[in-house]
Amino acid sequence: MLKVTDFDLRLLRIFKAVTDCGGFSAAESTLDMNLSTISTHMTDLEARVGIRLCERGRRGFQLTAEGRALYQSVSTLLDCVEDFRANVGALRGQIGGELAVGIVDNTITDARMHVAEAIRAVKLRGGDLHIKLQIQSPSEIEEAVQERRLHVGIGPFRNALPGLDYKPLYREDLYLYCGRGHALFDSAPLDIALEALGSLDYVARGYMRETKEVGGPVSFKATATVHHMEAVATLILSGRFIGYLPKHYARQWADNDLMRALRPDVLSHVAEFSLVTRKDRQPTIASQMFIDALLAHAV
């Protein structure tokens, strides 16, 4: 019979992190370990359990059939360990374990985003709670919640996925902007013909797909695709691109006349922000407190 020691738990956590990241190299920053150390730990784990867990080489990282089965067992085990830590903390009147939260980028300037207040409410209860806060795309957040790597996700989710529960939080207003030096800057915001916009260089966010989903009177010509809000802002500030930004995020440049909205009367859209959790996962005390604090501010 295999006796599970603290060292074994550490090896299992490394195995789970490597699998979640999709390979040894990808897991280096997550684990704060170099490639050689990770490889040694994985070899130790394979020797400990007596099975080959993954293939690594020119074809890339891939779990064996036994590795996939062990991964499911490891996920269940580590969830139970975290639940145990949380329950012991609750018996002492404290909050313990881990709270893993995923949010999309650059929401901190939105007064309707109350993540900081929710974290404060949880931490005021004391205990040895470890918080993991990750910035990811909406699809990455949903995937992580499904795979139990996150307790809670926050973002503008397009389509509800089976097995996940979505609760509305607030709405984010987005406007089309150009930067100082752009050909339309002096005419903004209203003295602009809509038909002139379709031929201009437009920056799209890969996960938002505005050119397909915003609709309206303009068909944009996407000549740049990025995956982070800051990259959109950088290209707009170059004076060569137009693109959508949340009003709260663009305000820091608009107030200094470095950006101007383009036809906000007709070219605006709304992102519906929701809180997502897994339906069949019992919330920990910490995650429930965090959720309750966020929903208390929902509009």
Describe the protein.
About 2% of the residues have low confidence. The chain is globular and about 75 Å long. α1 crosses α4. The chain is built from 10 helices and 11 strands. It is of the alpha/beta class and 299 residues long. Among the domains are: 84 residues, Arc Repressor Mutant, subunit A (Orthogonal Bundle); 102 residues, D-Maltodextrin-Binding Protein, domain 2 (3-Layer(aba) Sandwich), CATH 3.40.190. It is 37% helix and 22% strand. β7, α7 and β8 form a beta-alpha-beta unit.
Q: What is this structure, in a nutshell?
A:
This protein is α/β, with parallel strands linked by helices and 299 residues long.
What share of residues are in beta strands?
15-25%
Name of the CATH class of the domain at 171-272 = Alpha Beta
How does the overall form come out from the CA principal axes?
globular
Give me the strand/helix succession.
Answer: HHHEEHEHEHEEEHEHEHEEH
Mean pLDDT: 88
Enumerate how many helices there are, as a single number: 10
The CATH architecture term of the domain at 171-272 is 3-Layer(aba) Sandwich
Quaternary arrangement of the chains shown?
A: single chain
Structural class: alpha/beta
First-to-last CA distance: 54 Å
